[in-house]
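Priority: medium. Attachment 1 of 2:
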């Protein structure tokens, strides 16, 4: 009897152990997921924005639910879709040409570790505007009014994406202020004046207007 009595506690402990193992197994089968327990799982790393292309740049810069203003890239892409729906081939061709120029600039910036933004897009547009104006002058001189009309349509489209331009009087005031502040004089200071004025006007001044005014103000008297 003494041996049997001595074994009773061991049997009871073993049965208790079995019940605990079974309960643990049932509980583990119903264990909540990491998300339900508030555990933050690591997300896959995303490549840099500038390496994902023009479309990705537009998507990332798209307005949020709060109504943030769309970027120029978004606006251009939206206008392209509208031109396609309206079957406006002249407008569509002009926007596609602009889009190609922006993509080329994006490639150049990507190689230097940069990315396309509104400032860079404005520079691209200003360059194309100058090209169109030069072409219009050439075609007018050659009597090609048909080509003048085509270039004028594209010029009007391009200028619609530029910020409101300063008047000649406003540009003149900036030129005068820059020359006075930097204490510049003479034709050799032309480059410094141009650079300072263009930086201060933020793309809202026509290059030729700035150049003509700077040249006049720096001319010996």
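Attachment 2 of 2:
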């Amino acid at each position: 009897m003494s041996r049997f009595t001595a074994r009773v506690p061991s049997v009871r402990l073993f049965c208790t152990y079995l019940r605990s193992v079974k309960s643990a197994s049932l509980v583990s089968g119903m264990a909540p997921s990491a998300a339900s327990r508030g555990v933050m799982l690591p997300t896959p790393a995303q490549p840099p924005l500038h390496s994902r292309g023009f479309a990705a740049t537009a998507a990332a810069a798209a307005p949020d639910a709060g109504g943030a203003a769309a970027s120029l890239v978004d606006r251009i892409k939206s206008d392209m879709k509208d031109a396609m729906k309206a079957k406006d081939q002249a407008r569509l061709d002009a926007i596609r040409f602009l889009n190609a120029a922006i993509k080329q600039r994006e490639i150049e910036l990507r190689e230097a570790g940069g990315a396309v933004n509104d400032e860079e897009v404005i520079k691209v547009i200003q360059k194309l505007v100058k090209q169109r104006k030069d072409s219009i002058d050439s075609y007018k001189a050659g009597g090609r009014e048909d080509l003048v009309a085509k270039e004028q349509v594209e010029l009007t489209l391009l200028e619609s994406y530029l910020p409101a331009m300063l008047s000649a009087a406003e540009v003149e005031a900036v030129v005068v202020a820059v020359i006075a502040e930097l204490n510049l004089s003479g034709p050799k200071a032309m480059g410094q004046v141009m650079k300072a004025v263009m930086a201060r006007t933020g793309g809202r001044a026509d290059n030729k207007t700035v150049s003509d005014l700077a040249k006049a103000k720096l001319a010996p008297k």
